[in-house]
Task: structure prediction
Amino acid sequence: MDLRDVYKGLPEISTQQKDLVEKLKKSAEEEEISMEEVIRLLVEPEYDATYLHQAADEVRRAHYGREVYTRGLIEFSNFCRNNCLYCGIRRDNRKVERYRLSCEEIVSCADEGYGLGFRTIVLQGGEDGSYSDEDFCRIISGIREHHPDCAVTLSLGERSYESYKKLFQEGADRYLLRHETADKAHYEYLHPAEMSFEHRRESLYQLKEIGYQVGAGMMLGSPGQTPEYLAKDLAFLKELSPDMIGMGPFVPHKDTPFGKEQQGGLTLTLKMLSVIRLLFPYVLLPATTALGTIHPLGREYGLMSGANVVMPNLSPTEVRKLYSLYNNKICTGEESAQCVGCLDLRVKETGYELVSRRGDVRR
Ligand code: SAM
Result:
């Protein structure tokens, strides 16, 4: 597999851009680099960015070797009180057949995942108020009791400080909450008025203070996104210094207000993954399902560009298609949960190795 295939027929990287990659490489340790400068690597007319990807790969290998960590993703509910304009499970999408798994079903999915070799279980869902803190505590303690060597990651959206704290004390290790965009006006363009830019950011700092390993991130190519906003995203991530950065292309969903918008690009996503790896050598960085949706080899290319995590779906097959955030989402069929075997082969093809460990951050 060769990343050069992505850039066939495009001009070579310029000397100036090469210098920028070198500067970026040193930026984690010694050299100052402005985020506006970095953005020049992302938005200038298309060029062969293999040099950038190779630099990111070197850094990733220095920190994590050839290891790729897996997270078993349980999408436990597609009920959501929020109405994000880009998201297929938004409250106002009446075409969604809604489902929610019981606490027992969630724990049993995690058991199955453990048997398949997963040592991190991710609980992700819409903001479904029918689960109380006590419900989530039961689920977390259930997983921890059955599998003490397993990490529990939460991706439950915005909650109160007390709730985050309770769930942490019950044994949750990590929390994923994408900031979505670091520009307030852009945030307000992507979300309805009742959602708060400030609250989302504040949540991330609260989660950090409580002691979670924290993940932030954004969609690439989301409607209205500009290079300036991407520079702000990078500056915000620098300031927050998260342990994980979740970042994939925006993919339209036909039954949302952004259903006719353009999807985020493959090359923008790959270049951004490499830039992130160079700016944050230690970070846990997934090659997302959305990336695999916009290109059949998207996740493999993602790994070769600096990503070191994959998150296959562990939800019961009957509900997988219903957690439809965007059009044509992959891995929603029979094959997906137990697709570890297939994933294992796909990862090997890229020259890396899927490992069955918790895969904590190495700062
Ligand atoms: N409710 C939780 C939250 O808000 O963090 C977790 C579920 S939410 C659906 C998970 C992520 O899906 C969001 O952070 C968003 O970035 C991503 N997402 C939603 N719609 C998407 C789309 N159309 N294309 C790509 N990613 C999307």
Q: What stands out?
A: The first strand starts at residue 67 and ends at 70. The pocket of S-adenosylmethionine is lined by residues 86-87, 124, 126-127, 155, 157, 177-178, 180, 219, 248, 250-251, 253, 290, 325-326 (CB under 6 Å). Residues 3-355 form a domain with the TIM Barrel fold (CATH 3.20.20.70).
